[in-house]
Amino acid sequence: MDNLSCLRKFDTALRRSVLLECAAMAISFSDRVNVPEDVLISRLQEESVILNLDTERYFGLDDVGTTFLSALTTSDSIEAAYEKLCHEYDVDGDVLRHDLLTLVENLIDQGILIRAHP
């Protein structure tokens, strides 16, 4: 086997590994999310200021984001938070599902939420 064949096999194996890791990280609506201990959240009126102590970065959420975060962290699953929010907002379910998932992904990426399987 020549070096080029070895590199191709390694590249293919690496791509499979990365794809499996990405699939394993997929967020399920049956997952529960929590705020890690190194993240501080302070409410200011209807908005939130968030500090990730690990990264020393501040974030802000408007009133809608704050309501979403509250529903997520007080529910048994993302699906349960979705159900709560469906009753609170007059919005298409698919739009709400997309927006909620986008927020969860962003908050996990920033270390503000961590995922816990049920």
What labels would you give this structure?
4 helices; 118 residues; alpha+beta; Outer Surface Protein A, domain 3; three-stranded antiparallel beta sheet
Would you kindly provide a written description of the structure presented here, covering whatever features stand out?
The protein is of the alpha+beta class and 118 residues long. It has one domain: Outer Surface Protein A, domain 3, CATH 3.90.930.60. The chain has a 3-stranded antiparallel beta sheet. Strands 1-5 form a two-stranded antiparallel ribbon. A hairpin with a 4-residue loop joins strand 3 and strand 4. Helix 3 packs across helix 4. The longest helix is centred in the N-terminal third of the chain and has 22 residues. The termini are far apart. The N terminus is likely disordered.
Give the helix/strand layout.
Blueprint (H helix, E strand, L loop, with lengths): L2 H22 L7 E3 L4 E6 L2 E6 L4 E5 L1 H12 L3 H11 L4 H17 L4 E3 L2
Antiparallel strand pairs: 1-5, 2-3, 3-4
Helix pairs in contact: 2-3, 3-4
CATH class: Alpha Beta
Strand content: 15-25%
Spans of at least 5 consecutive residues with low confidence = 1-24
Radius of gyration: 18 Å
Short description, anyone?
The chain is an alpha+beta fold.
